[in-house]
TrEMBL record:
InterPro entries: MFS_dom, MFS_STP/MST-like_plant, MFS_sugar_transport-like, MFS_trans_sf, STP/PLT_plant, Sugar/inositol_transpt, Sugar_transporter_CS. The chain crosses the membrane at residues 19-39, 87-104, 111-130, 136-158, 170-193, 199-222, 284-308, 320-342. It holds the Pfam family Sugar_tr. It comes from Populus deltoides. One of its GO terms (molecular function) is monosaccharide transmembrane transporter activity. Residues 26-385 form the Major facilitator superfamily (MFS) profile domain. GO terms for cellular component: membrane. This is Major facilitator superfamily (MFS) profile domain-containing protein. PANTHER family: SOLUTE CARRIER FAMILY 2, FACILITATED GLUCOSE TRANSPORTER (PTHR23500), SUGAR TRANSPORT PROTEIN 1 (PTHR23500:SF574). Keywords: Membrane, Sugar transport, Symport, Transmembrane, Transmembrane helix, Transport. It is found in: Membrane. CDD domains: MFS_STP. Belongs to the major facilitator superfamily. Sugar transporter (TC 2.A.1.1) family.
C-alpha cells in the first residue's frame, strides 16, 4: 500500500513547509484531472435528453417521447441499451481502479495520470465520431478506464505534494475541478443543443478531449512526488524534491518518516487482510459507509441525469438544460466554500454541516412529494365522480 496512508494520517506532527508557487501551480495542474470526471458527469445527462441524439441511437426512446404513449414520463427512458450506454462507464472505471492502484504504486503517480488522460481522450474521439451504438459503448468504456486511473492517482498526488497546513484545501481542488467540469458540460450542452442540424451532441461528447489533453500534457510536465520516488528507491532525488516542494531546507523529519512509512508498507504481506483486523474495523467501516450513504442520498443521480430528471417532471428541453446549469453553479460555489473552510473549520465541522443540510433537503423533498401526490388525488377523484 502507498506510504501516504501512514504519512498523511499522522495528525500529531506538523512538518515545516510553505505554500510555494511551485507547489501551487503543480497542484492546480494535477487537480485538472478532476475535469474529465466532472465533464463526463455533466455531459451524459444532457446528451441523452437531446432529441437528435435519441433519434439516431435510441429510436425507441425517441418514439415514446414523441407519441407520449405513457402517462409516466419516466418510462420514456426505459431502454436496456440506453442503460448500457450510461452505466458501462462506471463498470469500466471500477475495473480500471483496481489495476490503477498497482500502476500508481509501482511506476508512479504520473504514469497513472498519463494513462487516464490518453484513455479518456481516445474514448472522447470515438464518442464524438460515433456512427453506431457499439461505438458509443466502446467510447464509454475507454472513458471509464481513463476515469479509473485519474481518480485513483490525482487525489494521491495532491496529498503527497501539498504542505501539511494546506493539504485539505489543495485536496478539495480535485473536487472543485469535478464541479467545474460538471458546470462547463452543462453550459456546453445548453448551447450545443441549439445547433441546427442535430449534430450538437457530437461537440458535447467530443469536447471531452479538451480536459483529457489537459491532464495528459500535465502528467508529462508534472514532477514526481517525493513519496513515489522513495517507494522506487530514489532516496537522494526524493530528499531534494522534498526540499523544493516544501520550500525549506529542514525536511529531515518528514523525509525520515516517509522512508519509515514506505519500508513498513513493504513489509506488509497481506494488506487487505490486515484491514479486516478487529482494531481497524471501526476505521474501515466508516471509510466504506460514509461514501456509501452519500451515494444513497441520490446526489450523483441528480448530477448525472439532471436534464433528464427535469425533463421527466415537465420541463422543456432548453429549460431542463438550464436547470442543470443552475445546479452546477450551486455545486461550484459550495465547493469553493469548503476549500475556504476545510483547514480553518476542520473536516468534522464540514462533515456534520453537510450531513445536516442533506437531511433537511431530503425532508423537504419528502414533504413536497406528499403534497404533490395529494394534489393529484384531489384532482382525479372529482373527475371520476
Amino acid at each position: 500500500m502507498p506510504a501516504v496512508g501512514i504519512a498523511v494520517g499522522d495528525n500529531k506532527k506538523e512538518y515545516p513547509g510553505n505554500l510555494t508557487p511551485f507547489v501551487t501551480v503543480t497542484c492546480i495542474v494535477a487537480a485538472m484531472g478532476g475535469l474529465i470526471f466532472g465533464y463526463d458527469i455533466g455531459i451524459s445527462g444532457g446528451v441523452t435528453s437531446m432529441p437528435s441524439f435519441l433519434k439516431k441511437f435510441f429510436p425507441s426512446v425517441y418514439r415514446k417521447q414523441q407519441a407520449d404513449e405513457t402517462s409516466n414520463q419516466y418510462c420514456q427512458y426505459d431502454s436496456p441499451t440506453l442503460t448500457m450506454f450510461t452505466s458501462s462507464l462506471y463498470l469500466a472505471a471500477l475495473l480500471a481502479s483496481l489495476v490503477a492502484s498497482i500502476v500508481t504504486r509501482k511506476f508512479g503517480r504520473k504514469l497513472s495520470m498519463l494513462f487516464g488522460g490518453v484513455l479518456f481522450c481516445a474514448g472522447a474521439i470515438i464518442n464524438g465520431v460515433a456512427k453506431a451504438v457499439w461505438m458509443l459503448i466502446l467510447g464509454r468504456i475507454l472513458l471509464g478506464f481513463g476515469i479509473g486511473f485519474a481518480n485513483q492517482s490525482v487525489p494521491l498526488y495532491l496529498s503527497e505534494m501539498a504542505p501539511y497546513r494546506f493539504r485539505g484545501a489543495l485536496n478539495i481542488g480535485f473536487q472543485l475541478s469535478i464541479t467545474i467540469g460538471i458546470l462547463v458540460a452543462n453550459v456546453l450542452n445548453y448551447f450545443f443543443a441549439k445547433i441546427h442540424g442535430g449534430w450538437g451532441w457530437r461537440l458535447s461528447l467530443g469536447g471531452a478531449m479538451v480536459p483529457a489533453l489537459i491532464i495528459t500534457v500535465g502528467s508529462l510536465v508534472l514532477p514526481d512526488t517525493p513519496n513515489s520516488m522513495i517507494e522506487r528507491g530514489q532516496h537522494d532525488e526524493a530528499r531534494e524534491k522534498l526540499r523544493k516542494v516544501r520550500g525549506v531546507d529542514d525536511v529531515d523529519e518528514e523525509f525520515n518518516d516517509l522512508v519509515a512509512a514506505s519500508e513498513a508498507s513493504m513489509k506488509v504481506e497481506q494488506p487487505w487482510r490486515n484491514l479486516l483486523q478487529r482494531k481497524y474495523r471501526p476505521h474501515i467501516t466508516m471509510a466504506v459507509m460514509i461514501p456509501f450513504f452519500q451515494q444513497l442520498t441520490g446526489i450523483n443521480v441528480i448530477m448525472f441525469y439532471a436534464p433528464v430528471l427535469f425533463n421527466t417532471i415537465g420541463f422543456g428541453s432548453n429549460a431542463s438544460l438550464m436547470s442543470a446549469v443552475i445546479t452546477g453553479v450551486v455545486n461550484v460555489v459550495a465547493t469553493m466554500v469548503s476549500i475556504y473552510g476545510v483547514d480553518k473549520w476542520g473536516r468534522r465541522f464540514l462533515f456534520l454541516e453537510g450531513g445536516f443540510q442533506m437531511l433537511i433537503c431530503q425532508v423537504i423533498f419528502l414533504v413536497a412529494e406528499e403534497i404533490s401526490s395529494l394534489c393529484i388525488v384531489s384532482l382525479i377523484i372529482p373527475t371520476n365522480l
